[in-house]
Design brief:
Largest sheet: 7 strands, mixed
Structural class: alpha/beta
Number of helices: 10
Strand content: 25-35%
Helix content: 25-40%
Number of strands: 19
Order of helices and strands: EEEHEEEEEHEEEHEHEHEHEHEHEHEHE
Length: about 350
């Protein structure tokens, strides 16, 4: 497809703009996707606010966005499983395929991954993208491209639930009810966990958690979260904690509220990267700590959970922004975190 496309670029910290670039030409194993929705992720906001996450430093002009859904408009010569008109969710990380981790199936740990919107790799706040066909997952008729864009964060939630060994009969607690906390809660429910409680300090986010299926919520600013969990579990503690807030306080609370022999899955990144934790208590309880980095082999499972109605993925979206309004989209997402749970940019969405 010849022509130019509109691209939103980060021109500096706190500054967005637009440019035009040629519409990419798909290689033989790629498809060209007309993007319709792209979610705004916490990492996008962090890059926008600070210009870096750890060793990943933005060098403007840089394209943010790694949660895309859209429609195939062109296919490479070797692509057999997709055709023009198919609606797809795009898994944003292309791995090498031959390192130790890729060979073990743990491809999310590949040291040479090329991941949308992770410097120096551009993201997808743009009208079209050429992407490896094997990383484009066809959506069932009853799953929209909006939901396709949100499969990416949902995959994080399912990976966290899987790492925690989630199953029926458990009582789980999710620390944090931002986007990742909410998708983790929904993943736990979809995998049959009997009771899932959510802890946060923002009422609107807790209301959203209840709306999406939490069995109860705890405002950690208004009550002692550990005491509340112990009361809800008749003093036993919970079987599983998914920590998505990334704070020392909530991680310490997770250790205190966890039942002996249970599992804590650490998902959220702390701002400092370091914490002081009550490890003597963790040892006494013989707790298992798991961590996650993105996800692996999750997209088909996540898409099926949405298609079957076990996950209300549209329900996490609180705000939509037009592509022409990208500066405001980023600014508001940062300034109004108490009310914006999940924002999505409409790139070329059908009316």
């Amino acid at each position: 497809m010849d022509g130019m496309m509109k691209v939103a670029v980060m021109e500096g910290i706190g500054k967005m703009g637009y440019t035009t670039r040629p519409i990419p030409v798909p290689k033989e194993d790629e498809v060209l996707v007309k993007l319709e929705y792209v979610g705004i992720c916490g990492s996008d906001m962090h890059y926008y606010e600070t210009g870096a996450i750890g060793d990943y430093v933005v060098k403007p002009p840089f394209v943010l966005g790694h949660e895309p859904g859209g429609t195939v408009v062109e296919v490479g010569s070797n692509v057999k499983h997709l055709k023009v008109g198919d609606r797809v969710a795009l898994e944003p990380g292309k791995t090498c395929g031959h390192c130790e981790f890729c060979r073990q199936g743990k491809y999310n740990l590949c040291p040479d991954v090329v991941f949308f919107a992770t410097p120096p790799v551009d993201g997808v706040f743009q009208e079209y993208v050429a992407h490896e066909a094997a990383l484009c997952f066809k959506l069932p008729d009853n799953v929209s491209t909006l939901e396709g864009a949100l499969i990416e964060p949902l995959a994080v939630g399912f990976h966290a639930a899987n790492q925690g060994g989630a199953h029926a009969g458990q009582t789980a607690v999710v620390m944090g009810s931002g986007c990742i906390g909410l998708v983790s809660m929904m993943a736990l429910k979809a995998e049959g966990v009997s009771r899932v409680y959510v802890v946060d300090i923002m009422d609107k986010r807790l209301e959203k958690a209840m709306e999406l299926g939490a069995d109860g919520v705890i405002n950690g600013q208004k009550q002692d979260a550990v005491e509340a969990v112990m009361e809800l579990t008749d003093g036993a503690g919970c079987d599983l904690v998914i920590e998505t807030a990334g704070t020392e306080i909530t991680t310490r609370q997770a250790i205190h509220m966890a039942k002996k022999g249970s599992t804590i899955v650490l998902v959220g990144y702390s701002k400092t990267g370091e914490m002081t934790l009550p490890m003597s208590l963790a040892l006494d309880k013989e707790l298992t700590f798991k961590t996650i980095f993105r996800y692996r082999h999750i997209y088909p499972m996540a898409i099926d959970a949405v298609a079957s109605g076990r996950v209300n993925l549209k329900g996490i979206v609180t705000d939509f922004f037009d592509f022409d309004d990208i500066q405001n989209a980023m600014d508001k997402s940062i300034a109004d975190k108490a009310n914006i749970v999940k924002a999505v940019v409409k790139i070329g969405a059908p009316e």
